Amino acid sequence: MTTTAFVHAEGGPSYNLGDEHPMTPLRRQLAVSLIKAYGLDRRPGVVPVVPGSATDEQIERVHAPAFVAAVRRYSRNPALAAAWEAGQWGLAAGGDTPAFAGMHEAAAAICGASIAGAMEVWEGRADQAFVASGGLHHAFANRAAGFCVYNDTAVAIQALLDAGAERVAYIDIDVHHGDGTQWIFFEEPRVLTASVHETGRYLFPGTGFLSERGVGAAEGTALNVPLPPHAGDRPYLRAIEEVIAPAVLAFDPDVIVTQDGADPHHADPLAHLQVTLSAFPRAYRALHRLAREACDGRWVALGGGGYTFQVVPRAWTMLFAEMIGAELDDEIPSEWWQPAEQALGVPLPRRMSDDPPPEVSEEERIRADAEGDRVVDEARALFLR
């Protein structure tokens, strides 16, 4: 029987960038509660894991000590972030990652959860792990960015390397390029970073082009598939199945870490990739199959982006169901949507399959689909020579 670590802690420090900020902790909370409403956390082989926080030493394996000290300073007194200096650390008031009280503790807790999932897998207590709180892939070694204070994906990967992993494959299917993780390991030949995303020509963070391939001994270990806006399901899935999967197999990793942002979805307010909900289970099946073929199923699945209450909980519930081999009833349990709907004051879906079509013209869809296929073919030719 496959053992799956369900890494989650109730309560604890809240990673909350503000009441009006799109990165609300409710996204993750609703996903976890939907998983529990389906009873997936109680299935045979699912092991609950309550993580601790990452230590400064673990965080500083990736992040500059001066940056960690700055995060601690603004965490104690966010009012100091009004000063010009805070902008140099990516923590300016009014920026995309504003300082908030307790942010060091909250970000360290997320790093701790991702490390816990990675170690459950690496040390053999679980075959795979799911960490909904993880996936803060934009933070750099010395700067917060893109809603991310510390980069837990990189911290977890570094923990695996420090524990003895010889090669780690990182796969990022979020709509935004996994830039922080890529640049942290851009010179590290033991880490393959693979990202499919909306092109940086139109979307934050403005990177993730085919030419970004790693440097020195790590040349060829950064792989990007930058899709055009409105590309939709087919190029997105082709990028995963026809480019990333064979590249990972060739890399022969000891373990796979995935960032599973749900923001490629067409309803997401911060992007334009126009992927439908039905594409997500196929993407998750491809990742699961890849983990089995590449590294005996050793898979650490993290959360990530996604900024609609209607999509993120369903997508990550589909992901966890794929991991444990569970079939989901299409009808969503009322004990999930009734209290959540009352608390949020917004309508929530009643069925897993509810998904209005993308609002894009047929002409634009055909054009973007063809351009997306061209990018996938170019990436395949470049990386699978």
Fold and architecture overview:
α5 (103-122) packs across α6 (152-162), α8 runs parallel beside α9 (279-295) and α8 (233-251) runs parallel beside α12. The protein has twelve helices and eight strands. The protein has one domain: Arginase, Chain A, CATH 3.40.800. It has helices at 26-37, 56-59, 65-76, 84-88, 103-122, 152-162, 179-184, 233-251, 279-295, 312-324, 334-344, 362-383, and strands at 4-7, 46-49, 128-131, 168-172, 191-198, 222-227, 255-259, 299-302. It has 385 residues and is of the alpha/beta class.
What's the gist of this structure?
By secondary structure, the protein is an alpha/beta fold. It is built from twelve helices and eight strands.
Draw up the topology in text:
Elements: E1 4-7, H1 26-37, E2 46-49, H2 56-59, H3 65-76, H4 84-88, H5 103-122, E3 128-131, H6 152-162, E4 168-172, H7 179-184, E5 191-198, E6 222-227, H8 233-251, E7 255-259, H9 279-295, E8 299-302, H10 312-324, H11 334-344, H12 362-383
Parallel strand pairs: 1-2, 1-3, 3-8, 4-5, 4-7, 5-6, 7-8
Helix pairs in contact: 1-10, 1-11, 5-6, 8-9, 8-12, 9-10
